[in-house]
Amino acid sequence: MRTVDAGGSFLKTLQGIDSHFMAGSWILSLGLLLAWYNLTRWQRSRLDHDSTPFRFSIRFFPSVWALDFWAVFIFFIGAIIEVNSVYTGIPEANLQHSGIYSAYMFFALVGICTVRGVALPPASKEAAFLVAIALEWISIKNHHLPSPLHNAMHMCFLYGISFGVIGVFSVLVQNATVRPASPHFPPMSCSVLPGLLLCFSLILQGTWNIQITTIVQQPWINAWNLNSPEHVLLIMSYWCFHAIFAAALLFVLVLVTERVVKCKLRKDKTAFQIHSSAIATRKAASLEAGGRATPLTVQIPTSAKNM
């Protein structure tokens, strides 16, 4: 009698897509959203001197209801369900992946609380994200696989996570030690580079996960020799090109966000001038209609002038 997997798995029903592709696409999207959100804010603080000083924030898009963090939380719930459906005969793998995903769910909860105004210490989001990505690094570091090719793939993934650990730690220190505004010390913008290192890590992890799909899945796996040193070297070369692509993509985003913010500021300035002109016109018309178009002159007494 054939048994039916009642729990099912969304990713298991999409075997042609593979979980690495789904996870990679998700991580890549988060990296791009994080970079776009913070680069536009940084460009505005640089181009508009009246704007709020820049401070890197682990937000993926603005939402008063913290929809970005809710999306992260729900995604990792699905990931835990998926991994427990796939690795039914390997409970250790279930435990390992579920632990990593739970850490990111905790980060999402901290983010939701921060957005909703819960009193938390400064840089709590960054601290929670550091805990999650550090646990992921430790888990991948001790994730040994049977073939040199599989180990090389996971070591490349580990290198990408390492950039994220350094980046989020730098953002945490920067945000936790930022000087509060005071009459003697005006607020200053923080550097965007530590945050961009975190974005670089997420983009690199995302594209590398998608690359893994073309190595471990059919029909591509038939073209690889799992024990060949040459193929291990080829994997490392692929990863270097992924790193260059991630850096180039961030460079393009810097240029694009600068142009977008400049256009937005120009439109805001034009709209303000039109609005001011309209107000002045209406005011002049109302003065003329009331017979007070000529400005009133006030005679100042001579004694007042000599005071």
Automatic annotation (TrEMBL):
The keyword Transmembrane helix applies. Signal peptide: none annotated. Keywords: Membrane, Transmembrane, Transmembrane helix. It comes from the Eukaryota. The chain crosses the membrane at residues 20-39, 60-81, 101-120, 157-178, 190-212, 232-256. InterPro entries: TMEM45. PANTHER family: EPIDIDYMAL MEMBRANE PROTEIN E9-RELATED, TRANSMEMBRANE PROTEIN 45B. This is Uncharacterized protein. It comes from Darwinula stevensoni.
